[in-house]
Protein: Non-canonical purine NTP pyrophosphatase, RdgB/HAM1 family
Amino acid sequence: MLQYVTTNPGKLREAESYLGDEMIDAYDYDYPEIQAPTLEPIAAAGARDAYREVGQPVVVDDAGLFIEAFDGFPGPYSSFVETTIGVDRVWELAEPLSDRPASFRCVLAYCDGEAVDDPVDDGDLPVQCFTGVVDGEIVAPRGDGGFGYDPIFEHDGATFAERTAAEKNELSHRGRALAAFAEWYQQR
Amino acid sequence: MLQYVTTNPGKLREAESYLGDEMIDAYDYDYPEIQAPTLEPIAAAGARDAYREVGQPVVVDDAGLFIEAFDGFPGPYSSFVETTIGVDRVWELAEPLSDRPASFRCVLAYCDGEAVDDPVDDGDLPVQCFTGVVDGEIVAPRGDGGFGYDPIFEHDGATFAERTAAEKNELSHRGRALAAFAEWYQQR
Structure:
């Protein structure tokens, strides 16, 4: 059975909705995340490490908010930046920009020890990555829902904190990565 | 011979000035840095990885600027933050604070596969860490020397960008970590 390396039951449910709940299970393993300016090498290294630990096909994810004018900041360190300077200060940083395009990104990395169609370059075990992106822009905080950067990320006229959970799931960067992965995995 | 895992000739020279140039050499190995909110686990994981690769006693370092009111931001990700939002924006973030204490920190991690006096907790190989700290505060950028966060870090009345290279070396957080390490290592 495919193992989703996560302790988050919401992530498992989201994955089950794309793959079927007979197909995927959650595996609690705290792999060391590496440092990199983009998500792909981080998720890929995690998938290799987790596959060695678990010995079954694994999926690992990583996600973050990427602000274009800031070369992707906070990107892979979104969680660290949220708990240190906080989301309101990220807005203050972005406010003077004339243009504030940004994206929520999620990368899923898959490893089962076998060759894949489109392997990530580095590393000894083949890994394939699937990316989900939601484009939007950074705005002054609005809305009471969601968490993290949701109040300052606007997509299609509303921030993620102004949307219902159902609307957010519909737009989810993780959902988009899972859809791409599920399509590929069901052929495998 | 002790191997300093770095490609920076300046770091090797600084280490030689504390240990003697018969004692330490530079080893070019690009170990994967892990993510953590503090330097110690990052340097320790690097030392374990490098010791496995090199097979000789190794020293690995990590360094960063820690702003107290921001829970240590940018900390271990100082280099990423510098190349994405830039040093001037870190000053803009800090400007509204009533109090701006900060420190330059360097951690040296040593691993030779043998037991050490005061091992870092996690991990399979014993590692000992040595920390060097220079306290100061964040100020509006001043001075043309140095690099990175030097213009916004004031210690004892001058920013690091207003000091000569000799003065900076005298105050170096890396130098302080090297001094602590050298004292311990010469007993070993």
